[in-house]
Design a protein that fits this description.
Elements: E1 4-8, H1 19-28, E2 33-36, H2 45-55, E3 58-69, E4 72-79, H3 86-101, H4 103-112, H5 119-126, H6 134-143, H7 150-158, E5 171-172, H8 173-182, E6 186-189, H9 203-211, E7 217-221, H10 227-240, E8 243-246, H11 267-280
Parallel strand pairs: 1-2, 2-3, 3-5, 6-7, 7-8
Antiparallel strand pairs: 3-4, 4-6
């Protein structure tokens, strides 16, 4: 087994490939395994699993869960949770509601800054996704000629420290860890030292989460981490006995420099993830 990319997105959240297109592109990229980790939803699983069977690509059931740690946004990758788990499903629905509830305020702020985005334009980019995200706003802004791409939209307007940002409900991190484990899943902190989250996830805290058996792994190899950051995280994960993962965080055309398979995970780590999920009653 080779070519294991544990973190990808589809149009079910903020990617630009449908679940089937994602699988086809993974096959064309030479990947054997992908983790579908749409934001706060499992709605893409069935389509991706069916497409994977036809294309010879194994699709892992994943979620990228929106979390909060003392006011800082943290992303938690959850693998192999039971789809029917009521408590986790309810919390994911609460996160999705938080996303939707801030839409009117964000639209109003855009208009105040001379960047009006009609609702029909925004929701054309949202499509059938149950999980409305800032990348959908970015895509609408690109369509209207306000910015060149998603990166510019975030850098100038949508990032946490920019004028259009509106806070929303997200699950407290340690609550999310407990919910995922109770639902049979394994947990990996996504891109922990990328963007603004490093100060909130210091070495000692990450190690304590692993020691408590709440956290299984750390996404070390990610394009938001430079070589020095990867080396530091790898040392931390090794010392703490955390699983070390690597992935693309692929969003299709929606995220530059995150090509499928640009970072991968070892077969040994995937096997250990499988073992833990199986022992907890989940399904990877």
């Amino acid at each position: 087994m080779s070519g294991i990319d544990l973190h990808t997105h589809s149009t079910v959240s903020d990617g630009t490939d449908s679940p089937s297109e994602l699988v086809a592109n993974a096959a064309a990229s030479g990947l054997d395994v992908i983790g579908l980790c749409d934001h706060d939803t499992i709605d893409g699983w069935d389509e991706a699993l069916t497409a994977g069977e036809a294309a010879g690509v194994r699709v892992l059931r994943g979620i990228e869960m929106s979390c909060d740690l003392k006011g800082v946004s943290i992303h938690l990758l959850a693998y192999g949770t039971r789809a029917q788990d009521a408590e986790l499903a309810a919390e994911l629905a609460r996160n999705r509601a938080g996303r939707s509830e801030r839409v009117p305020t964000m639209l109003a702020r855009l208009a105040e800054h001379g960047l009006p985005v009609p609702e029909e334009v925004l929701y054309r980019h949202v499509g059938d996704s149950p999980s409305v995200g800032r990348p959908h706003f970015a895509d609408a802004m690109v369509e209207l000629g306000y910015v060149a791409d998603r990166r510019q939209a975030f850098d100038q307007w949508l990032a946490d420290d920019q004028p259009i940002y509106v806070a929303r409900y997200s699950t407290e991190l340690e609550t999310a860890l407990d919910l995922v484990r109770a639902a049979g899943g394994a947990t990996v902190i996504a891109h922990p030292w990328g963007r603004s989250s490093r100060a909130s996830l210091p070495t000692r805290y990450l190690a304590s989460l692993v020691a408590s058996r709440r956290l299984d792994g750390i996404e070390v190899d990610h394009n938001d981490h430079d070589d020095q950051t990867r080396a530091e995280l790898r040392a931390l994960a090794t010392t703490a006995y955390a699983l070390i993962t690597g992935s693309s965080d692929y969003h299709g055309a929606g995220k530059q420099d995150h090509d499928l398979g640009c970072n991968t995970t070892s077969p040994e780590v995937l096997a250990e993830l499988e073992r833990r999920v199986h022992a907890r009653g989940g399904l990877l």
